[in-house]
Amino acid sequence: MSEVSLVVNGRKVSGAVEDRTLLVHFLRENLGLTGTHVGCDTSQCGACVVHVDGKAMKSCTMLAVQASGSTITTIEGLANGADLHPVQAAFKEHHGLQCGFCTPGMIMTATDMIRRHPEGLDEIAVRAELEGNICRCTGYHNIVKAILAASKTMSKASKSKAKKAA
Amino acid sequence: MYSVNYHRATSVADAAKKIKAGDAKFLSGGMTLIPAMKTRLAAPSDLVDLSHIADLKGIKVSGKNVTIGAATTHFDVANDEKLKKVCPALSHLAGHIGDPAVRHRGTIGGSVANNDPAADYPSALLALGATIVTNKRQIAADKFFKGLFETTLKDDEIVTAVTFTAPAKSGYAKFPNPASRYAMTGVFVTKGKDGVRAAVTGAGDDGVFRSKEIEAALTKKFEPAALDGVSVPSKNLMGDIHATPEYRANLVVVMAKRAVAAANA
């Protein structure tokens, strides 16, 4: 057993877990954050993607003790109160989902991708970046549309913020 | 996953001490080891986590000399501006391992120590004539990779860095398996002051290897056309449900052509 301490969605949390406990199970079972899903359990599908210290990672392929000391954002931590995050809003607007199982991982991957590409994204880049996220319903079309739309919204927002600051 | 005891190492010396517990294994990014433990293909009693040792992280480029710390992630290798300038082929290779989430965690030291026969890095290190630095010695890539998942590393030996001199030209091309995206065949070619080297991953029955045929043809002329009509023997190549040894032999030539084209671009 080890003591795991994390900051999850801005809240300090800790708990004693078996060393073999995966981060995704700690999030779901100890913290009740069931938005992060276990899809394939073999590191391929990306339903379990969360941000660890600001970077997208597969929480099913990481022990909770490995993450101890890190800052984690899950799908539950994206929205600002009742206001959806721009990526969540874009998935809703463009219907970037059908059954919704892969959606939390898709959205966490998308926000990470947009952060790393402030210059903007095109369809080829988005599809390449989605390499590690599998959707068995949509055929990806509306997911790609939603991410492209969110990328535009977010770059506009950051530009107008920069203007205001100047 | 079977029960395991986790130890976080604070330094290389600390890791070397902690590895002596039971049937312990080193853990870096864990992109191979954790899945192997989940399926119970690996069941170490203890894990010694190397990924929090600051000394093992980072890329140094001085002229043409490159040193990459063992715990440097694929993402950092892919995006290091100095490395991109002196050896863009290695950045390209790192940027095409797995997927973005895997690249954020997986490390060059872990990949090299694991020596998966379909991993990308072993072909690069072999073609670059790189040196693998451990806490005990320096090992030439030519002597380091031994076979499937086998290296000359001792159980308690820790890869701390890889070093190489960037060649004038280098290129990498792989044919990814459509499902796993591991290299079904990947070829890394270099042209430096010691001549041409071409290393093949994903195809060899015994892991990564240098192709005499490709090197001979490219020594005459470092152009894709130099490989027209060249054939690589299918003996000692892998055959599985994805591809026969003959198919892989053909892929070696095709990927080598693409790698040379990339190196000359």
UniProtKB/TrEMBL annotation, chain A:
<dbReference type="GO" id="GO:0016491">
    <property type="term" value="F:oxidoreductase activity"/>
</dbReference>
<dbReference type="InterPro" id="IPR036884">
    <property type="entry name" value="2Fe-2S-bd_dom_sf"/>
</dbReference>
<dbReference type="InterPro" id="IPR036010">
    <property type="entry name" value="2Fe-2S_ferredoxin-like_sf"/>
</dbReference>
<dbReference type="InterPro" id="IPR002888">
    <property type="entry name" value="2Fe-2S-bd"/>
</dbReference>
<protein>
    <submittedName>
        <fullName>(2Fe-2S)-binding protein</fullName>
    </submittedName>
</protein>
<dbReference type="GO" id="GO:0046872">
    <property type="term" value="F:metal ion binding"/>
</dbReference>
<dbReference type="Pfam" id="PF01799">
    <property type="entry name" value="Fer2_2"/>
</dbReference>
<dbReference type="GO" id="GO:0051537">
    <property type="term" value="F:2 iron, 2 sulfur cluster binding"/>
</dbReference>
<keyword id="KW-0408">Iron</keyword>
<keyword id="KW-0479">Metal-binding</keyword>
<dbReference type="Pfam" id="PF00111">
    <property type="entry name" value="Fer2"/>
</dbReference>
<keyword id="KW-0560">Oxidoreductase</keyword>
<feature type="domain" description="2Fe-2S ferredoxin-type">
    <location>
        <begin position="2"/>
        <end position="78"/>
    </location>
</feature>
<keyword id="KW-0411">Iron-sulfur</keyword>
<keyword id="KW-0001">2Fe-2S</keyword>
<dbReference type="InterPro" id="IPR001041">
    <property type="entry name" value="2Fe-2S_ferredoxin-type"/>
</dbReference>
<dbReference type="InterPro" id="IPR051452">
    <property type="entry name" value="Diverse_Oxidoreductases"/>
</dbReference>
<dbReference type="InterPro" id="IPR012675">
    <property type="entry name" value="Beta-grasp_dom_sf"/>
</dbReference>
UniProtKB/TrEMBL annotation, chain B:
<dbReference type="InterPro" id="IPR036683">
    <property type="entry name" value="CO_DH_flav_C_dom_sf"/>
</dbReference>
<dbReference type="InterPro" id="IPR016166">
    <property type="entry name" value="FAD-bd_PCMH"/>
</dbReference>
<dbReference type="InterPro" id="IPR051312">
    <property type="entry name" value="Diverse_Substr_Oxidored"/>
</dbReference>
<dbReference type="InterPro" id="IPR005107">
    <property type="entry name" value="CO_DH_flav_C"/>
</dbReference>
<dbReference type="GO" id="GO:0016491">
    <property type="term" value="F:oxidoreductase activity"/>
</dbReference>
<dbReference type="GO" id="GO:0071949">
    <property type="term" value="F:FAD binding"/>
</dbReference>
<dbReference type="InterPro" id="IPR016167">
    <property type="entry name" value="FAD-bd_PCMH_sub1"/>
</dbReference>
<dbReference type="InterPro" id="IPR002346">
    <property type="entry name" value="Mopterin_DH_FAD-bd"/>
</dbReference>
<dbReference type="Pfam" id="PF00941">
    <property type="entry name" value="FAD_binding_5"/>
</dbReference>
<keyword id="KW-0285">Flavoprotein</keyword>
<feature type="domain" description="FAD-binding PCMH-type">
    <location>
        <begin position="1"/>
        <end position="169"/>
    </location>
</feature>
<keyword id="KW-0560">Oxidoreductase</keyword>
<keyword id="KW-0274">FAD</keyword>
<dbReference type="InterPro" id="IPR016169">
    <property type="entry name" value="FAD-bd_PCMH_sub2"/>
</dbReference>
<dbReference type="InterPro" id="IPR036318">
    <property type="entry name" value="FAD-bd_PCMH-like_sf"/>
</dbReference>
<protein>
    <submittedName>
        <fullName>Xanthine dehydrogenase family protein subunit M</fullName>
    </submittedName>
</protein>
